[in-house]
Amino acid sequence: MRLRNIPGARETIAESEFVIHNEEEYKGKWKEVFGNDNPIHLEIGTGKGSFIMESARRNPDINYIGIEKYSSVLLRALEKMEEEEPRLTNLVFIRMDAEYIENVFEKDEIDNIFLNFSDPWPKERTAKRRLTSDRFLKRYTNIMKKSGRVTFKTDNIDLFNYSVETAKECNWNILVETRDLHKSEYNEGNIMTEYEKKFSQLGNKINMMIISQPENE
Ligand code: SAM
């Protein structure tokens, strides 16, 4: 994602009704934010928000939280939220680095996690920043229900292979593994992300894995 420093982005986010601020104060209380007991799904690295907005439109009985590190990117999602009619009441955003998700969510608070076209961090010395690294899988275990699933899509085959291997090494169960999602049986109901549209138009195959947590943790 090309990042530009957009003047006023931080101020707009600070004032937005769609963004939860002081997110650590809501640890264990996210049901209160939505005012119901519906399941909560997270998208980490939500980008400009197309995927999570369409998910929220299609599934009014699920609550969604989009996490994005950069103000300049999140701003685009918020602009779309402003235009949305009727208003999506089951979706909020947090501007934060996902490294700190355990400070924001309690054990068992999250049902499912979506990672879409996550940054590859190809160098070995930055591998721990990959959202499918063992460190991140451990963080997900600490906030997700036992029945929860992590769904990961990418066109980057090296990152995909690494992610499948890491999940196996960490004893996660591989429920779905496809290296050509759009031609597979799993494509039905698939919601394309901004990057997914862009890369599949270029002819890149889209990989997807769905994993569940190890039994004994
Ligand atoms: N998910 C979108 C899609 O598929 O179109 C955007 C993909 S873009 C390549 C990756 C996004 O993840 C960027 O917006 C980036 O800022 C965000 N991101 C990367 N690492 C993150 C982290 N540790 N915490 C929160 N957001 C992160």
Ligand roster: S-adenosylmethionine
End-to-end Cα distance, whole Å, is: 35 Å
| Largest sheet features | 7 strands, mixed
Number of E strands: 7
Q: How does the overall form come out from the CA principal axes?
A: globular
> How would you classify the quaternary structure?
single chain
The helix count comes to 7
Q: Structural class, please?
A: alpha/beta
Strand order of the largest sheet: 3-2-1-4-5-7-6
The ordered string of helix (H) and strand (E) elements is HHEHEHEEHEHEHE
Share of helix among residues?
A: 25-40%
Instruction: Write down the overall mean pLDDT.
Output: 96
Could you name the key traits of this structure?
single chain, 217 residues, 21% strand, binds S-adenosylmethionine, 7 helices, 29% helix, alpha/beta, 7-stranded mixed sheet
How are the SSEs placed, and which strands pair?
Elements lengths: L8 H7 L14 H5 L5 E5 L5 H9 L4 E6 L2 H13 L7 E5 L14 E7 L17 H8 L2 E11 L2 H13 L3 E6 L15 H8 L5 E6 L5
